[in-house]
C-alpha cells in the first residue's frame, strides 16, 4: 500500500525574512510559510505506481530474456520516478538552505541593530526598548524552530516515499536519502548569534551578569544535576531554549562570539565545528569492576575516577584533569561532590603506577603542572591527588572506558549557579584492550569496530546551585523536546556495553529499544574478527560508521554512470534482504538497587489488607447483633462466614507480604501482580454489604413485607412533610395551599402582612396570598390561596415590605442583570405594578430592607448568584442599593465583603435575606444554614442550621404579642423575651419562624426559642431542632 500522505500544518505560500532597522525598535519581522515548498508527495506516489506497472508488464514480456535485458527494463521503468525524486530532494534542500541563510542574516541584523541602539543610548536602554528586543529575539527563535520542523517534515515525507519505492521498485532511495541528509544539516551559527543577542539583552536589562570575562573551572563542585536525552531533530529547539537562559560559554574565550565581520557572511555550522568543546574522558575501574558495581548500586560513598582533557589528547607537559566523584546518600549530611586537580600528561604513568606516594610526591607532581599555585591551594590539591592515587593502588584501577563527545555549554562566566551543557556525538571506546606503551589509547590507534559504540541521543544536563529549574527548560520537558534521563552515566553505559561478562547488573536504560544496539549489538558470523579502524577517526566522532559489520560494508554502492543520481541500485537493495539479523547477546540482568521505599510500600499494602480484614469483622459483628431481631435470616451463618473470610484474608496477606519481600531481595522483575487476593476480598465484602442492605431495607418498611415483598405503588401527596419534620399544632405548622394546583406553585420567599393577615409568597411569575390565621391557632385548616398579581415574563425570587409598597425581586437566569419591581395595593386581594428598575446584580435571589437612621431613607440588601462558572464557595454575594421613592431614577449600589460573608462555606449560594431586630439574617440554602450578622460591626453573632429534609428558599422571623400567656402557651409558641422579669399576666412576645420551600412547594411556621447569643434560634423537637 502507498504511504499515507500528510500535509504541513498552517503553512502559507512563501518564504520570507525581512529586516528593517529602527534605532528605537528594530523591526525584525519573520514571516515563515512553506506550503508551496513542501514535498509533492502525490506526484511521487503516482510515479511509483506508474513505474511498478511498467515493471510488471516488462517482466511478463521478457520472461525468457537474459538478466541483462531484465535489468535494462528495470532501469527504464524507474528512471522517471528516480529523476522526479532527485528533483524534489534538490528543490527542498535548496529552499531550506536559502531560508536558513535568510534567518541567519536576520538575527545578525538584529544584533547589529542592538549595537547601534545601545551605542546611541550610551549603554542605557529603556525598559520598553529592552522588551522590544526581547520580543524580536523570541520571534527569530520561533521562526528558526518552524524552519527546523518543516525540514523534519520534508525528511519524513521523503523517507516514507523512499521506503515505499524501495519495497515496490527495488531501488535504493533510502540509502541515497541518508547520504544526502549526512551531507547537509541545519547550521548552528544561528544559535551562536542568538546567544549573543540574548546576552546583550541581559546586560542591557541588568537581569543577569554579562559574558565579558573568561571562565575558569572551579576545583570543587556542589551542584544538583538533572540529565535528559534529546534526539537530533529536537536539538536546535533545545539550543535556542538554552541560549535564552544563559550565554554560550566557550572555554578560554571571552566577550561576544560574533564579530562585526561575522555579521556580513554565512558561517556554516559554527557552533559544532568551531566553538563546541571536544571532551574526552578515560574512566578507571578495577578488574572486578568494583567502581561500576558501587556506582550502579548507588552505595553511600561510591566513587568514580576519570582523566579528562579538552581537544586533542595532550602529550608531555600539557595538562590532564583528574576528577573524583563521590556519591552521598540523602540521609548523610553531606552533598555529593566532584573534585578535580590537573597534572601533566607525562605524569599519568606515575599516577597509575602501583607505588606508594607521600605527600611530597603528590606536591611535586601538582607543582610541575601548576607553577604559580599558592601554598594553601597546593596543599589542598596535593591531598586530593594523594587520595586519588591511594584509590588507584588499593583497587588496582586501570583504564576501562573512554567517552568522547562535543559539548556546547551555556553559563555566565561570572556565576556558577546555572550551567547548561549539551553533549553531542557521544562515542564510547573500550580502553581495556590497549596494547600500546601509552597509559591509554593514542589518537592514531587502530581499533576494532567492536571497541566503539555510539550513544543514540545527545545528553542535556542542567546543573543548579540551589536555584530552581528555569521555566523555559521546564516547558521543554513538558512538551517532550527533552526526555528524562535520571542518573544516566556515560561510564556505566560504556562499562556495561564492553564488560558485560564481568557484571550481572545493567543500567535501567539498557531495556530501552534505542539502547539495545549499544548494549547487545554483536558482529555477524561473517565478521568475528574486528575490522581495524583508526582512532584519528574516533576523535572526530563519526564512530557510527565504524560499527558496520563486514556484511553491511559489502552493501556499499559504487557510482554508476547515468542520468539518475540513484544509479543502478536494485541489486544492492535485493542483497540487503538476505543479510542475517544480528543476534543479540543478553547479559544477566537485575534491578540496580531496590529502593527502601519499595519495602515500605509492601508494608503499607500489608496493613491495608489487615484493614480490609477488620472491615469484614466489623460487618460480621453487625450481622450477629441483628440476629435476635431477624431470626428469619441466616445472619449467624453469614457472620461466621465473614469472620472466616477475614481470617483467610489475614493469612493470605501475610503470605503475599513475605513473597514480595523475597522477590524484592532477589531482584526479580516479575511476580508482583496479584489477581486472586483482590477478587476474593471484593466478593466477601460484597456478600456482607448485601446482607446489611437487605436487613436495613426490611427495617425501613417492615409493615409491607420489607425488601422481600413487592409493595404496591403508592403516591405520596405533596403535603406530607419530610420524615424529619412532624406537623404539631402551635409548634410545627404545615400550611395547606388549596385553590391553586401544586404545579403552579414554587414558593421562593415568604413575607407577612400583619394588617391584612396574610402570608405573601412569590412563586414564579405571580405572587400569592395565604391566610395567616393557621399560624396562631391549634387547628390545621385548609384555607384558600389568592393570586395577588401575575406578571408574565417575571421570575419573582424575593419580597420586601416597605411602607405601603411591596418591592419584588425578579431574576433572569441567563442575564447579568435583574429587576426590582415596586407593587402597591389596589384592594386587599390585588396588587398592581408601579415602577421597575434594572439592577446590575446577576441572578438576584434575596432582598432585605434596612431602615435608615432616625427614619431616613434606608437601603436594599440584594443577594446574587455568580453561577456555576465559579467555585461553589464563591457563588454568593450581596450588593447594597440606596432606597429611592417610586418615580425616582436608577439605584446606586456597592457591595459587601464577599470573602468575609462566605468564609468557611463549601457552597455559599444565598437564597434570601431578612433584616430583623438590628441583625441581618442570611439564608444559605445549599449549606442549609442561616448566618446572623451585625451589620454595624461586621461580626457574625450566630449561626444555626435549618430543619433537614427540605430545600428552603424563603424565611421570615416575626415577633408576636401573647396576651396573658400561660406557661403552657409559652412553651408551645416559643420562649418569651424577658420572661423572668415580667409577671405572668402581662403582655409578652414569642418568635415565629416562617419558611418556604420550592420543591415540594410548602410553607411552614415554627414556634422557636431564642438562644443565648444575639440572633441565635432553637427549633422545636418536631423540626429536628438544631442550634
From TrEMBL:
<feature type="transmembrane region" description="Helical">
    <location>
        <begin position="606"/>
        <end position="626"/>
    </location>
</feature>
<feature type="coiled-coil region">
    <location>
        <begin position="34"/>
        <end position="68"/>
    </location>
</feature>
<keyword id="KW-0472">Membrane</keyword>
<feature type="transmembrane region" description="Helical">
    <location>
        <begin position="677"/>
        <end position="697"/>
    </location>
</feature>
<dbReference type="Pfam" id="PF09359">
    <property type="entry name" value="VTC"/>
</dbReference>
<dbReference type="GO" id="GO:0012505">
    <property type="term" value="C:endomembrane system"/>
</dbReference>
<dbReference type="InterPro" id="IPR018966">
    <property type="entry name" value="VTC_domain"/>
</dbReference>
<feature type="domain" description="DUF202">
    <location>
        <begin position="597"/>
        <end position="662"/>
    </location>
</feature>
<protein>
    <recommendedName>
        <fullName>SPX domain-containing protein</fullName>
    </recommendedName>
</protein>
<dbReference type="GO" id="GO:0006799">
    <property type="term" value="P:polyphosphate biosynthetic process"/>
</dbReference>
<dbReference type="InterPro" id="IPR003807">
    <property type="entry name" value="DUF202"/>
</dbReference>
<keyword id="KW-1133">Transmembrane helix</keyword>
<dbReference type="InterPro" id="IPR042267">
    <property type="entry name" value="VTC_sf"/>
</dbReference>
<dbReference type="Pfam" id="PF02656">
    <property type="entry name" value="DUF202"/>
</dbReference>
<feature type="transmembrane region" description="Helical">
    <location>
        <begin position="633"/>
        <end position="657"/>
    </location>
</feature>
<feature type="compositionally biased region" description="Polar residues">
    <location>
        <begin position="1"/>
        <end position="20"/>
    </location>
</feature>
<keyword id="KW-0812">Transmembrane</keyword>
<dbReference type="InterPro" id="IPR051572">
    <property type="entry name" value="VTC_Complex_Subunit"/>
</dbReference>
<feature type="region of interest" description="Disordered">
    <location>
        <begin position="1"/>
        <end position="22"/>
    </location>
</feature>
<feature type="domain" description="VTC">
    <location>
        <begin position="223"/>
        <end position="498"/>
    </location>
</feature>
<keyword id="KW-0175">Coiled coil</keyword>
Amino acid at each position: 500500500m502507498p504511504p499515507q500522505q500528510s500535509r504541513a500544518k498552517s503553512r502559507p505560500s512563501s518564504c520570507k525574512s525581512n529586516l528593517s532597522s529602527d534605532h528605537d525598535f528594530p523591526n525584525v519581522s519573520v514571516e515563515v510559510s512553506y506550503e508551496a515548498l513542501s514535498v509533492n508527495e502525490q506526484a511521487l506516489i503516482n510515479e511509483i505506481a506508474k513505474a511498478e506497472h511498467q515493471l510488471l508488464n516488462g517482466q511478463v514480456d521478457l520472461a525468457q530474456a537474459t538478466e541483462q535485458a531484465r535489468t535494462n527494463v528495470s532501469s527504464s521503468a524507474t528512471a522517471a520516478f528516480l529523476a522526479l525524486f532527485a528533483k524534489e530532494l534538490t528543490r527542498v534542500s535548496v529552499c531550506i538552505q536559502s531560508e536558513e541563510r535568510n534567518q541567519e542574516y536576520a538575527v545578525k541584523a538584529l544584533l547589529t541593530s542592538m549595537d547601534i541602539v545601545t551605542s546611541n543610548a550610551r549603554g542605557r536602554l529603556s525598559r520598553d526598548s529592552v522588551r522590544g528586543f526581547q520580543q524580536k529575539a523570541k520571534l527569530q527563535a520561533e521562526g528558526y524552530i518552524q524552519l527546523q520542523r518543516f525540514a523534519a517534515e520534508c525528511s519524513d515525507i521523503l523517507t516514507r516515499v523512499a521506503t515505499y519505492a524501495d519495497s515496490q521498485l527495488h531501488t535504493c532511495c533510502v540509502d541515497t536519502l541518508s547520504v544526502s541528509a549526512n551531507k547537509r544539516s541545519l547550521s548552528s551559527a544561528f544559535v551562536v548569534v542568538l546567544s549573543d543577542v540574548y546576552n546583550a539583552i541581559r546586560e542591557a536589562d541588568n537581569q543577569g551578569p554579562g559574558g565579558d570575562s573568561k571562565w575558569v573551572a572551579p576545583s570543587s563542585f556542589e551542584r544538583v544535576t538533572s540529565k535528559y536525552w534529546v534526539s537530533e531533530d529536537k536539538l536546535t529547539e533545545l539550543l535556542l531554549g538554552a541560549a535564552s537562559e544563559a550565554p554560550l560559554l566557550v572555554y578560554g574565550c571571552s566577550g561576544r562570539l560574533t564579530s562585526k565581520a561575522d555579521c556580513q557572511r554565512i558561517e556554516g555550522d559554527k557552533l559544532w565545528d568551531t566553538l563546541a568543546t571536544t571532551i574526552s574522558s578515560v574512566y578507571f575501574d578495577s578488574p572486578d569492576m568494583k567502581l561500576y558495581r558501587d556506582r550502579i548500586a548507588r552505595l553511600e560513598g561510591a566513587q568514580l575516577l576519570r582523566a579528562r582533557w579538552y581537544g586533542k589528547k595532550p602529550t608531555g607537559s600539557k595538562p590532564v584533569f583528574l576528577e573524583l566523584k563521590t556519591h552521598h546518600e540523602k540521609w548523610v549530611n553531606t552533598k555529593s561532590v566532584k573534585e578535580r586537580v590537573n597534572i601533566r600528561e607525562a605524569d599519568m604513568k606515575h599516577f597509575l603506577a602501583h607505588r606508594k606516594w607521600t605527600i611530597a610526591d603528590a606536591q611535586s607532581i601538582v607543582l610541575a603542572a601548576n607553577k604559580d599555585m599558592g601554598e594553601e591551594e597546593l596543599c589542598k590539591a596535593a591531598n586530593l591527588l594523594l587520595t586519588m592515587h591511594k584509590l588507584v593502588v588499593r583497587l588496582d584501577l586501570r583504564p576501562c572506558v573512554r567517552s568522547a563527545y562535543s559539548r556546547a555549554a551555556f553559563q555566565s562566566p561570572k556565576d556558577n549557579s546555572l550551567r547548561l551543557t549539551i553533549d553531542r556525538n557521544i562515542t564510547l571506546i573500550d580502553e581495556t584492550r590497549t596494547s600500546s606503551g601509552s597509559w591509554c589509547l593514542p589518537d592514531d590507534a587502530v581499533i576494532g569496530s567492536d571497541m566503539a559504540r555510539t550513544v543514540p541521543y545527545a545528553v542535556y544536563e542542567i546543573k543548579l546551585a540551589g536555584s530552581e529549574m528555569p521555566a523555559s527548560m521546564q516547558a521543554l520537558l513538558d512538551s517532550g523536546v527533552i526526555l528524562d534521563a535520571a542518573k544516566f552515566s556515560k561510564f556505566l553505559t560504556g562499562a556495561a556495553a564492553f564488560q558485560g561478562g564481568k557484571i550481572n547488573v545493567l543500567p535501567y536504560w539498557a531495556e530501552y529499544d534505542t539502547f539495545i544496539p549499544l548494549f547487545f549489538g554483536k558482529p555477524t558470523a561473517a565478521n568475528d574478527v574486528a575490522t581495524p579502524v583508526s582512532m584519528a577517526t574516533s576523535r572526530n566522532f563519526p564512530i557510527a560508521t565504524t560499527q558496520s559489520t563486514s556484511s553491511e560494508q559489502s552493501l556499499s554502492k559504487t557510482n554508476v554512470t547515468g542520468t539518475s543520481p540513484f544509479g543502478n541500485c536494485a541489486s544492492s537493495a535485493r542483497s540487503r534482504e538476505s543479510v542475517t539479523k544480528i543476534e543479540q547477546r543478553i547479559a544477566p540482568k537485575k534491578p540496580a538497587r531496590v529502593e527502601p521505599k519499595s519495602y515500605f510500600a509492601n508494608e503499607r499494602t500489608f496493613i491495608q489488607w489487615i484493614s480490609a480484614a477488620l472491615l469484614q469483622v466489623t460487618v460480621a459483628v453487625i450481622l450477629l447483633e441483628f440476629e435476635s431481631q431477624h431470626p428469619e435470616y441466616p445472619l449467624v451463618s453469614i457472620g461466621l462466614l465473614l469472620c472466616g473470610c477475614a481470617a483467610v484474608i489475614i493469612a493470605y496477606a501475610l503470605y503475599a507480604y513475605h513473597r514480595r519481600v523475597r522477590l524484592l531481595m532477589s531482584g526479580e522483575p516479575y511476580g508482583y501482580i496479584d489477581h486472586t487476593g483482590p477478587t476474593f476480598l471484593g466478593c466477601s465484602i460484597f456478600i456482607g454489604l448485601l446482607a446489611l442492605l437487605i436487613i436495613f431495607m426490611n427495617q425501613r418498611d417492615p409493615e409491607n413485607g420489607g425488601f422481600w415483598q413487592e409493595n404496591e405503588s403508592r403516591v405520596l401527596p405533596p403535603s406530607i412533610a419530610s420524615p424529619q419534620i412532624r406537623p404539631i399544632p402551635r409548634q410545627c405548622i404545615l400550611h395547606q395551599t388549596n385553590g391553586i394546583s401544586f404545579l403552579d406553585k414554587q414558593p421562593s420567599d415568604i413575607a407577612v402582612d400583619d394588617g391584612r393577615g396574610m402570608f405573601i409568597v412569590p412563586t414564579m411569575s405571580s405572587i400569592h396570598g395565604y391566610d395567616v390565621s393557621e399560624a396562631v391557632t391549634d387547628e390545621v385548616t385548609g384555607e384558600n390561596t389568592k393570586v395577588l398579581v401575575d406578571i408574565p415574563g417575571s421570575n419573582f425570587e424575593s419580597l420586601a415590605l416597605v411602607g405601603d409598597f411591596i418591592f419584588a425581586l425578579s431574576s433572569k437566569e441567563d442575564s447579568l442583570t435583574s429587576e426590582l419591581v415596586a407593587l402597591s395595593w389596589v384592594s386587599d386581594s390585588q396588587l398592581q405594578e408601579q415602577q421597575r428598575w434594572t439592577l446590575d446584580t446577576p441572578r438576584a435571589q434575596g432582598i432585605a430592607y434596612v431602615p435608615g437612621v432616625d427614619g431616613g431613607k434606608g437601603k436594599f440588601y440584594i443577594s446574587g448568584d455568580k453561577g456555576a462558572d465559579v467555585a461553589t464557595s464563591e457563588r454568593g454575594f450581596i450588593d447594597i442599593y440606596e432606597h429611592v421613592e417610586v418615580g425616582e431614577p436608577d439605584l446606586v449600589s456597592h457591595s459587601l465583603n464577599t470573602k468575609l460573608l462566605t468564609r468557611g462555606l463549601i457552597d455559599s449560594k444565598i437564597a434570601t435575606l431578612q433584616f430583623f431586630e438590628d441583625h441581618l439574617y442570611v439564608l444559605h440554602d445549599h449549606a442549609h444554614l442561616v448566618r446572623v450578622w451585625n451589620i454595624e460591626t461586621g461580626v457574625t453573632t450566630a449561626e444555626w442550621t435549618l430543619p433537614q429534609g427540605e430545600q428552603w428558599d424563603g424565611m421570615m422571623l416575626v415577633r408576636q404579642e401573647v396576651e396573658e400567656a400561660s406557661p403552657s402557651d409559652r412553651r408551645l409558641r416559643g420562649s418569651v423575651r424577658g420572661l423572668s422579669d415580667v409577671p405572668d399576666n402581662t403582655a409578652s412576645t414569642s418568635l415565629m419562624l416562617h419558611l418556604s420551600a420550592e420543591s415540594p412547594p410548602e410553607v411552614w411556621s415554627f414556634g422557636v426559642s431564642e438562644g443565648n447569643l444575639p440572633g441565635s434560634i432553637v427549633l422545636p423537637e418536631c423540626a429536628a431542632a438544631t442550634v
